[in-house]
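Reopening this ticket.

The earlier resolution said the output was attached, but the attachment link was broken on my side. Pasting everything inline this time so it's all in one place.
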Amino acid sequence: MRARLDPAKVKARRVAMNMTQADLTYRAGISVGTLSRLEQGLAGSTQILVARSIALALGTSVDALSIRREGDPGDHDTE
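Inline output:
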């Protein structure tokens, strides 16, 4: 199973928590390269276990960090 994390949401949450990439990778148990690619939008989809580790380290949920597509539950955009 995979998740599509929003690079901007991940980075914004990390910065808001005053964490460096190194801090987050240590806490999430992932490599700096993995996080760097994710934050640059180069990662595509992410393994669900990695996404959960990142979300846990950032004190949030995978859902909160995910890209929402039109029609997804929770999509409240109006025209």
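Reporter confirms the inline version is readable. Residues 74-79 have pLDDT under 50 and may be disordered. Helices lie at 7-16, 21-28, 32-39, 48-57, 62-65.
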